[in-house]
C-alpha cells in the first residue's frame, strides 16, 4: 500500500503510514480524530497526561495520574482537617515533583540532571518567589481587600503576568537553544516545568501567613479545599501549559531551534493573554464572599486551562506529523540529517522531492518568489543521449582513457551510489 501523502510503502494491513503517520483508512488528512501521541484519543480532548507528559503517555500514563491524584488527595485531606501548612506545601509541590519524576523517567535531561533541573525548575521557582514578594510589597495589602481599582488591576492583572512569563521563559529558552534539547517536544516540556515552578514559588509567597500559622481547626473546610485545588492543580497547569506553548514555538519546526521568531512572539503573546484573563478574573472575584470568590476562580481557571490544553495538543500534534514528514522528505531527497530541505511557504511543512504542490496544505510551489540562480541549481543535469559521447572528466592523476568509461570496452560504469558527494 502506497501512502498518498509521502509515497512511502506500507504493508497491506497498515492503518497508519509508517513514514508520515497519515491515516490510510479514512479521509482525515490532519488526523483530527487520532492524536499523534495516543491514537485512541482525538486531538480535541482534555486528556491531561498525554498533553503535558507526551513522552511517557503511551507507556505508563496511569503512573503519573496516580501520583497527581495522591498528591492532590493528601493536600485536600490536610485542608479539611485544618492542617493548612501541610495542605499548601503539598499543593504547591505536587505538580512540580511529579513533573521532575517524569523528566527522570523519560531521561529528558540527557544525563545532565543538575543543569536541567536548575535551569528548568530551580531558577524559575526562585525568580517567581522573589518577584511575587516584590510586587506584593509594592502593592498595598489594603488595595487587595477594600475594593477593585484600576491601578491595582493593571498591576496584578496585566503587568504581573507579562513580567512573570518573561521570567518563566529564561530557563526553557536557554535549554532549547542547546543542540541536544532543540526538539519542539523538549521545548514544550521545559516550558511546562518552568511554568509550574513559577506557580510553586508564587503560591509559597502569597500564602506565607497560612504556612506559618500552623494548625487552624476553625478554618472553613470548603474554602480551603477549593483554594488547595486551585493552587495545587489549576494554577500551576495554567502557567505550565501557557509557558509550554511559547517555549515550543521557540524550539520550532524542522532542524535546530527557530529562536525569537514571529511564531515565538505569537506563542508568548498567547501565554500572556491567557494568564492575564486568569489573573484579572481572580483579582475581581476576590472581592466576593470568600468561598464564592474562590469557587468561581476555580471555574474560571478550569475554562482557561481547557483552552490551553487544546492549544498545546494542536501544537504538539502538528509538530509530530511535521517531524515525520520531514524524515520522509530527507529520505526521499537523500539529503541526510543535515542537508537542506525545501519548505512550503504557506504551512512551513517540508516538501517532497520535485513537489509542485505541498502534500499537506496543497499550496502551489511554483508561485514562490524566485531566488537568483535557485532554479538552475535545483534542476538535475540532463542525461546524455545514447548517440552522444560520454563526457570525460580528468581525475587527479591526469585524464583517463576513453575506455575507462566505456562499458562496451569491458570496463563497467561505476555504481551510481559510489563516489556521490552531497
UniProtKB/TrEMBL annotation:
Ranges for region Disordered: 375-422
Keyword Membrane: yes
Keyword flag Membrane: yes
Comp. bias intervals (Low complexity): 403-422
Residue ranges crossing the lipid bilayer per the database entry: 63-80, 86-104, 116-138, 150-175, 225-247, 291-310
Protein name in UniProt: PrsW family intramembrane metalloprotease
Keywords of this entry: Membrane, Transmembrane, Transmembrane helix
Biased composition (Pro residues): 391-402
Amino acid at each position: 500500500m502506497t501512502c498518498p501523502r509521502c509515497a512511502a510503502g506500507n504493508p497491506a494491513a497498515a492503518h497508519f503510514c509508517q513514514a508520515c503517520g497519515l491515516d490510510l483508512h479514512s479521509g482525515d488528512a490532519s488526523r483530527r480524530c487520532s492524536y499523534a501521541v495516543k491514537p485512541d484519543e482525538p486531538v480535541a480532548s482534555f486528556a491531561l497526561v498525554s498533553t503535558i507528559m507526551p513522552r511517557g503517555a503511551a507507556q505508563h500514563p496511569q503512573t503519573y495520574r496516580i501520583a497527581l491524584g495522591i498528591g492532590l488527595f493528601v493536600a485536600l485531606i490536610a485542608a479539611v482537617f485544618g492542617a493548612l501548612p501541610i495542605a499548601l506545601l503539598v499543593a504547591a509541590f505536587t505538580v512540580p515533583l511529579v513533573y521532575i519524576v517524569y523528566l527522570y523517567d523519560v531521561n529528558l535531561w540527557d544525563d545532565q540532571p543538575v543543569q536541567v533541573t536548575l535551569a528548568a525548575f530551580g531558577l524559575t521557582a526562585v525568580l517567581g518567589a522573589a518577584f511575587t514578594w516584590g510586587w506584593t510589597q509594592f502593592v498595598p495589602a489594603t488595595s487587595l481587600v477594600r475594593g477593585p481599582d484600576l491601578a491595582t488591576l493593571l498591576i496584578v492583572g496585566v503587568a504581573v503576568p507579562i513580567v512573570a512569563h518573561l521570567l518563566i521563559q529564561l530557563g526553557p529558552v536557554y535549554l532549547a537553544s542547546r543542540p541536544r534539547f532543540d526538539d519542539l517536544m523538549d521545548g514544550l516540556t521545559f516550558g511546562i516545568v518552568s511554568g509550574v515552578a513559577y506557580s510553586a514559588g508564587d503560591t509559597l509567597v502569597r500564602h506565607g501567613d497560612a504556612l506559618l500559622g500552623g494548625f487552624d481547626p476553625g478554618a472553613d473546610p470548603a474554602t480551603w479545599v477549593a483554594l488547595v485545588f486551585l493552587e495545587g492543580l489549576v494554577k500551576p497547569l495554567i502557567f505550565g501549559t501557557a509557558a509550554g506553548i511559547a517555549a515550543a514555538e521557540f524550539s520550532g519546526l524542522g532542524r535546530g531551534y527557530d529562536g525569537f521568531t514571529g511564531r515565538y512572539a505569537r506563542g508568548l503573546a498567547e501565554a500572556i493573554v491567557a494568564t492575564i484573563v486568569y489573573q484579572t478574573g481572580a483579582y475581581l472575584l476576590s472581592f466576593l464572599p470568600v468561598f464564592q470568590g474562590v469557587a468561581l476562580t476555580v471555574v474560571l481557571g478550569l475554562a482557561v486551562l481547557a483552552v490551553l490544553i487544546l492549544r498545546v495538543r494542536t501544537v504538539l500534534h502538528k509538530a509530530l506529523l511535521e517531524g515525520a514528514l520531514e524524515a520522509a522528505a530527507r529520505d526521499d531527497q537523500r539529503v541526510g540529517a543535515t542537508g537542506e530541505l525545501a519548505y512550503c511557504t504557506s504551512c512551513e511543512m517540508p516538501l517532497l522531492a520535485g513537489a509542485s504542490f505541498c502534500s499537506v496544505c496543497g499550496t502551489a510551489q511554483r508561485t514562490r518568489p524566485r531566488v537568483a540562480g535557485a532554479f538552475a541549481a535545483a534542476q538535475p543535469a540532463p542525461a546524455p543521449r545514447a548517440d552522444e559521447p560520454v563526457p570525460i572528466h580528468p581525475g587527479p592523476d591526469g585524464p583517463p582513457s576513453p575506455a575507462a568509461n566505456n562499458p562496451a570496452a569491458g570496463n563497467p560504469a561505476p555504481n551510481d551510489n559510489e563516489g556521490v558527494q552531497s
